[in-house]
Amino acid sequence: MGLPWLALPAMAPEAFATPGPLSAKSPPLPARAKRIVHFFMNGGPSQVDTLDPKPALATYAGRAIPIHLRTERKTGAAYPSPFAFRKHGQSGIEISEIFPNIASMADELCVIRSMHTEVPNHEPSLMMMNCGTVTQVRPSFGSWVTYGLGTENQNLPGFIALCPGGLPVRGTHNWRSAFLPGAYQGTHIDTRETRPERLIENIRASQGRDAQRRQLDLLAAMNRRHSEDRAGDANLESRIQSFELAYRMQMEAADVFDLSREPASIREMYGDTQYGRQALIARRLIERGVRFVQVWHGAGQPWDAHNNVKENHTRLAAECDRPIGAFLRDCKQRGLLDDTLVIWGGEFGRTPTVELAAFGSNLNGDNGRDHNSYGFSMWVAGGGMKRGHVHGATDDFGFRAEQDRVHVHDLHATLLRLMGFDHEKFTYRYAGRDFRLTDVHGRVVEEILA
Amino acid sequence: MIGAFNADMPYDRFVVRQLAADQLEEGSAHLPALGFLSLGFNTPRLTNQPDNVDDRIDTVTRTFLGLTVSCARCHDHKYDPIPTRDYYSLYGVFANTHSPADPAPAAPPGPASPLDRYYLPRLATRLAAIDGYKRERLAEIAAEARQPETVAKYLRTAWEARGMTNPQVENLSKERNLNLRILQRWRAWTAGDRTLSGAQQLDDATLDAIVRRLADSGFLETPAAPPSLPLEDFIHVLTEGDFNTTNNLRWKRDRVFADYAYRGALLGAPPRAMQVADNARIVPAHVFIRGNPNDPGAEVPPQFLSVIGGKQPARFTHGAGRLDLARAIVDPSNPLTARVWVNRVWMHLFGEGLTRSASDFGTRGDEPSHPAMLDFLADSLMRDDWSTKKLIRRIVLSDAYRRSSSDNAAARAIDPDNRLLWRHNRRRLDFEALRDSMLVAAGRLDERIGGPSFSLESLPADPRRTMYAFVERERAQALLKAFDYADPERHTEQRDNTTVPQQSLFLMNSEFVAEQARRLSERSPGIGEMFRHALGRLPSEAERAAFAVSEPCASAPGAAPPWRYGYGEFDAAAGRVAAFTPFEFFVEDTWQAASLLPHPDSGVASLTATGGAPGPDARHAVIRRWVAPSGGTVDIAGSLSHPVDQFVRRFGLTDGIRARIVHSRLGVLGEWTFGPPEPVTAGESSEAAKKARKVETAVAGVEVRAGDTIDFAVDAIEDAEEDRFTWSPSITAVGGDSKWKAAADFAGPPLEPRCPRSQLAQVLLMSNEFAFVD
Asked: B153, B302, B387, B554: which has the fewest Cβ within 10 Å?
């Protein structure tokens, strides 16, 4: 450009004096895991078609089952799973045929078959799973973790929510920081977008790299001069640094989202699909030190199979099984699984009984399942969890968690413990009291810790 | 609110109007103040009502009193003298207050306008659909609940539940899959029936006899019978399908209302504002034991907090009690209100309050750094008839306020936190001030006070003051969040002050900043002016050298794009599009006439890559226009669809859409109409329903000359509701390679070209000197 820019000593980019809100911190207790990836099956997958086989449903096919629990919509007779289950691995965990790849990693999984939550509606259950409360405005799990631990890579957001094609139900509330500072809010990335530069707002450099460097050098020179007679103001200094961070974030983001940098074999392993790409992005993010990654299946609530659960679950499992299986295998071979918690599940489960067609909910015949907050299944793998283990059980039909029940609060308490926090002591002062992710609830489920 | 502060409305009157403007005999001018109570956290489900009320209690008590009364919801406050009874005294006030569905006009309505004639019947249709649906469903529920075996089940349960607590009854209803509301009504009936309430045993024969008697006497069909739930009980029995249906219809109705109110305001009707009103029937409040609304304890009177009002505070007597509450809050004997307000004003001027926990003056809050100052200012405020402007003047004329923000090593060693105000705190502009300042530097700020909101996401940027930006409570905007914007659903005493790279990315790369930098460089003949506009000073010699740039930015003439987006009228007599008005704003992925819709003239008319929505009537068709770059023959392809959901179909909420392809010389090339939708039939497949409203819009062999236009125009026929369509045509040159695809070619306005001079201007806008106030 031929501009007479100010002469300026080169900045030492790593020489940061002031810790920012996202600087990495150590947890108060010994931690078993450093980061979390949550594969969120939004809409609520059916436990009896995925992780919780119930042969009794076949016995009762077409007949009423002896358990009466109130459901949101009318449901009728027992509805046996259209899918076969088979034992897998050394552990012999039974998993539905729609998840062959995840099942091949069965010995890494801790399957919880006794999950339960409060309400059989999506919005409150999403809030419970993400923010530990049914309705109130509270920070999300990811915001809490990022608040407590900061993040390992200042060039990327610490908490990222990947969701292709739009937002899940309740939108940004699922990763809100609420009364925690805005720096802990999740950053949403629409993974339908394949151009790296379009994934984060304003991440695309508005000009050539050299021109921008010169511009930032001039800015730094001006800011330094401005600081000279304003010594000792950390706010000025941290704002100076944030431009350097942003400059590097542009490059780091372009790099992390650019999957062409992965070997073909790895790309092949995940599959060149939307879900495959986002699972691979998730691995690249945690590998670079991002603290918390949520991977949503898609906008809205794809797993909400009121109609035709067979078609719905077959299709969705086909989309995510190979990528998640590859993610587990890939993380294991890289040693990442040892200190990463991988969570799989929805906001609740589905009824073992068939939903009856009705205006306003479903019009397409009696072949789907209604919401179920009484019992559902999830699995967690990695850092500090038992491997190849099944915890808890539902009744004979998979309707209600009966044995070793695990509430969402208990899950949160347990995961926080693995991240190095006592959920009863991990608090934030707001509105006159100390808030917790688990409010006044939650028990660490010691039985599932390795 | 902005008007109130500009007019220096005394703070005590301000507070009373915020809480109870509807109860004052002073006309409707101040009714918009009630937005404070109505625009909070809201969830539509009944079971969440206690949370909605809690939000009001929390917001009101922390805002005006600096007390965290919500901590006393489940048990007495752990630290402050606020018993649970006090919480529920206030609970009654807000539980007996509701937000009417619609914002009411702040002035009496005039004679019926064309807008009234269009919208009012449509609003009525939707309301009637909701009520009709509820009645149908209640009738179904009642019919089921009148079955003899069901009646027997309810009766037996009601009888067994005689001595139970409310939570036990609730559990029992769940266990037996009975509706709690109907069961409660049966319990009430059972209590009034001597044979049943007195019976020690209830054998099947006796029960059967009672059931038969009830059925034979016709009692079960009467409105008093427990299965005959009244309309207002619908909320207690609704299923997910019912919730979806009524909520969806409600949402559709509200959408229509929003267009009505907003367009009305733009066209000169009295503005409307969200309000609150007392419930028709005032119900006494009870303590909820351990916060459980299904376990009510002792009744509590509506009254003020005992810690301020004394052991026996006066009972509130006006309706729900909002006016009494407001008057108690601003009573001069209340030690908190004036101090809390004074402290907030101080906080906004100094960056920190005298008491740093500005919304918690309780025992766990922060001790004031200068208690005497707080007392003095609070006292002065009341003596000055609660004038906020006088308060501000008093503070800014003080020695403390006028101190420099320069460092002083000795003072810093003693008081590093500056609690003693040895210097002024250097402060970073918040997002609103930063954005406004950039518009000022660019010479573009629209300083008008009042009027409609605008979208922060439009291109080009709307130069209105940022405080008028539209903020959706349900959606956190990443940009605002990056700049510590408070959660719009919660009371927030002070914004956080974080520095994150997303803020810098906005300054480095956003179109908004590039646009302002370019305007700044264009309005500044030299470097001196550029510095003056941005920083209010002249550059130093070194800066002059560093910023010396010769040539001004050249404008980059781009080729005119083949597609244009706008709206206009189709002249049926001439068979031509009579007028075409291009859309001015591109918001996210949509071309439209205003940064925030509806537009007074073109309504919600808009276009995206793949479809759009027409304007309010047949004269405002939305038009995707193709301009022929050269002559030849072209083929037109594409499919048009008008998808409607099952609710629109069942309740007949649209009259369909009409699409035309119109050539500027040759006239209409094709016309397609979708009429009102087909009714819903049970068991149909959703695929078939989708196909029913889809058509191919192919026209072959159209002759064009350079400059001819081909318009893809869609209009609303007579009713513009539920008219979103998809249509992304393509045009192919016959015998050539050229192809124009509406979806692939779709783009926003061309980006601001960067040039050295505007990049320098941008440096000034990014600088610390610009962002901080010493």
From this structure: B554
